[in-house]
Amino acid sequence: MDPHAELEAQIDRWRGYVQRNQAISPADVDELEDHLRGQIADRQATGLDDEEAFLVAIKRLGNLDAVSHEFAREHSERLWKQLVLVPEGSDGGSAPRGRELAVVLALAVGAGVAVKAGSAWIGDDAALTRNLGLFVFPFLAAYFAWKRRFNGATTAMLLIPFAVLAVVLNVYPFSSGGSTGVLAALHAPVALWLLAGVAYVGGRWRSDKRRMDFVRFTGELAIYYTLLALGGGVLVALTLATLQILGVDFEPVLESWILPFAVPGALVVAAWLVEAKQHVVENIAPVLTRVFTPLTIVMLLGLLAVLAAAGGFVTIDRNLLILMDAILLLVLCLLLYSISARDPLAPAGLFDTLQLVLVLAALAVDAVMLAAMLARIAEFGYSPNKIAALGLNLLLLVHLVRAAWLAVGFLRGRRPFAALERWQTQYLPAYGAWAAVVIVAFPPLFGF
Q1: In the predicted model, what is the mean pLDDT of residues 79-92?
Q2: Which of 88, 238, 246, 302 is 20 to 30 Å from 389 at the Cα level?
Q3: Top-confidence residue, 177 or 391
Q4: What does the alpha-carbon distance between residue 17 and residue 19 come to, in Å, rounded to a whole number?
């Protein structure tokens, strides 16, 4: 067990609290954390233990008086009032958001223009599908670069793999209707999203805490994007219905202009909403995870019963296997977001037990899926689709087995929750590596 696990958990808790303050940007939080760690190291060198060094270091962060005051008020049981509580006084003013909003809207419009121009330039639908992410990612990364003040090394870290991906997706002679082209189109967003993660953390991808921040950001982004999509869908439906009554055909405008701009632009706007810390998602995130975790468990158990009644593994429908893979990925996303939304210092409780049940149910489904895939490969031979699905399910198996093992250790009091949290973030690059293999290596291996 890490001898400084409790200290790391304290710093994680402090960082999460500071990030919820709208006056402090993520780049400033990074700088403040570095300063905090330096203060802790100085205090430890004088002979203080981790707890004492942490509390004294917090006291010395003069730039966070107002935030520290509220933090101490909420966590007085840890004696933070004694060392951190300061008289309430002047607040730091929030950074002006008008300029940031202008930047966000410009990037959102730019993403729409790129998609619109790309769709006009690329006539083939399959090639357009492979390239959609390439049109949107630069604008999302540009927003993070503007927020994080990228240096040359971070920019190169993003541009090189992005350029390689763009070349592969457009230079490889994919066969029309071939499996490898479809697989490349499906896995390209995974690779691009992990590159977006590198941009989000400002190039500090090796930090477990920064990767967990990106997991949390991804979950909140999904919620905001869904809300924007629902609201936009209602407005579009009302407009469409009204214009139809008036005899105006609105569908060509919707398909040719509104959707190409709204869909990618909303992604940039949703990212800005998460960065702006509107506090709404932070309040409902724990509720959402507690609602959907038991419902997902019931769904997985029902699917296991259906799979058991399906007979032999070879007879399981191919489309069902694809759908089950999608469900397992959603379960994995729910697990990651639940862990990111949890207080790492809270003791084990009923919800942690439910999460373990969720992982075990997902493991059972994954085991059935692997058995079915191996049976189909033995019966009908291998194909790019089957090997890609097999590799994904093996990745999921390793991920879930280790997560279950660490969760059991946490529930039994033998491991801190931080160990389970670190495993999730340390394993994320494995999915990016597999996506890269499918995109780069599969086409030449299987004759494009």
Answers
A1: 40
A2: 302
A3: 391
A4: 5
Tokens 């809207």 sit at which residue?
105
Q: Record the tokens describing residue 239, joined without a space.
A: 């407009």
Structure tokens at 225: 């994007």
Within a 10 A sphere around the Cβ of 306, how many other Cβ atoms?
12
How many angstroms separate the CA atoms of 257 and 248, rounded?
A: 16
CB 424 within 8 A of CB 215: yes
Q: What is the pLDDT of residues 375-427, one digit of tens each?
A: 888 888 888 888 888 999 999 999 999 999 999 999 988 888 888 888 988 89
Integer angstrom CA distances of residue 405 from 41, 133, 351, 357, 370: 33, 36, 17, 12, 20
CA distances from 229 to 225, 259, 260, 297 (A): 6, 11, 13, 27
Confidence (pTM): 0.72
CA–CA distance, 124 with 232 (Å, rounded to integer): 28
Residue 159 CB coordination number (10 Å) = 13
Q: Which residues contact 151 (CB under 8 A, 6 or more apart)?
A: 203
pLDDT tens, residue by residue, 264-283: 999 999 998 888 765 555 55
Q: Please name the residue that has the structure tokens 């994007």.
A: 225
Domain segments of the chain as ranges = 5-84, 98-276, 280-415
**pLDDT-derived band at 213, boundaries 50, 70, 90:** confident
3-class SS string, 167-193 = HHHHHCCCCCCCHHHHHHHHHHHHHHH
Distance from the Cα of residue 391 to its chain's centroid: 21
Tokens of 248: 């105006």
Residue 392 belongs to what H/E stretch? helix 384-411
d(CA 236, CA 258): 9
**Which token pair is 345?**
């210092």
Mean pLDDT, rounded, for 187-215:
86
Residues in the chain: 448
